[in-house]
Amino acid sequence: MAGRTGNVKLIEQFKADGLDVMFGNPGTVEQGFLDAAEQTPGFQYVLALQETVAAGIADGYARATGRAALLQLHTGVGLGNAIGMLYQSMRGHTPLVAIAGDAGVRYDAMDSQMAADLVAMARPVTKYATRVTDPGSVLRVVRRAVKIAMTPPRGPVFVALPMDVLDELNDEPVLASTVPVTVSAPPAGTVTRAAQLMAAGQHPLVLAGDGVGLAGAQAELVRVAEMLGADVWSVDSSEVNMPASHPLSRGQLGHMFGERSAAVVAEADAVLIVGTYVFPEVFPRLTTPFRPDARVVHIDLDSYEIAKNFPVDLGVVADPKPTLAALAAELDQRLTSPQRQAAARRLAARRDVREQSLRDAVPGDSALERFLQELAHRAGDGIIVFDEALTSSPAVVKHLPPDRPGDYFLTRGGSLGVGIPGAVGAKLAHPDRTVVGFTGDGGAMYTYQALWTAARHGIAAKFVVCNNRKYRLLDDNIAQYWKERDIPLHAFPSSFDLSRPDIRFADLARALGAEGVRVEKPEEAARAVERMLAASGPFLVDLQV
Length: 545
Known about the structure:
There is one protein chain. The chain is an alpha/beta fold. Helix 21 links the parallel strand 19 and strand 20.
């Protein structure tokens, strides 16, 4: 409708795209469209006390809904606060639409207070970053940003919105953004070639990432893996791409040292990479970890990731779901009887190992183990887990195995602090589900203010701080550093220690409007789980591990 300002039309555009919840922290240069948002029925503003928290909640909401989430930041200072969490979203392909105001185009020459090149700041941590400078192109640019955020490979985008541009009258039409359909299958000859390469392997291996989950290709991945009798390792994976309880599911490759990945793939002579790049470590191996005669097939919708670091024999730019389905059908026609028998033996061997490990498992008696046992018993399979427990994550997934898509979300990207806000966002997305966010004591303190947001908006997420009074992951990593350099073991740096003074997480939770309890002994775990699940609002457990 003509005669309405850009502030009003902007909110109408967001609603047309289903972006009716805005996560943010307000600022003066955004006050025009925040005022318009307040006057718009059916539009919700979720207030966070700092932009990192807002970005973390938006990330969790987008991941739990599978849709884009709207994040409002306050000009350059707010964008600066959110950079670390936006990096997390970029590495994890979360579709965030981040916006920030600035004082106005008219002030560009003044070098005024809080002035900054917002686009240059945002560009390294987003798929797309731009600034609107024409009052007649506000909605056009927003639609472009939504399209880019939601088109695989998904990711965060950023739009700077100067106040004077939004204050102008805007006669642009409000239209829902167009997100292109990217479902595509490769030609039959390509599928045949992929099947030939994989069927010939004596030691097949699958490396799978979040592209599988985005495509909804979990069942197709399982079928291909079972037909090949191939172990499946998760790479750059943060969601359920294959049921963790499946005997061929081997868990996560490390994200830190390339030698671990090299050891996993060393014997494989036929490797299928799907929905990920290889390899995402902090210290990756610089030479190829694959054996010289290995045949490598790489399937991904993102052509950039295929053969990005190491050559492959066949790169296929296509949607994982129809491609894996076609590959399974081709393998069904092509596998010989001896090949099927060999695959069946490999699958049976893994199943035997899995069953034996379950028989041999000795129940843990630490507070952490007792807590997780009780939570698994009481919550059943109705729980959603947001996992930033880091060094405690193996225990979490042992007792609460990630088997169903949408039930488990793992931190990714390397920036701490997503565990608590991510759980808030997931609970807001699924108010009828039990959502539990696991984090460490170090990670918790990055974004503890998210508890206040949960209390303010009545978001009854649950939180568990796995409190070991240190940055335990740094202890583990520096021990590896010493080992690689033949440095004798000695005391860990004091900067890794969080024990002095003791952080009273339950007390902090109560100060922010949430209930909380501290668990110091294993016998206290059951009661803590009972209280946590019974709480009608946000509840935090300070779990001493």
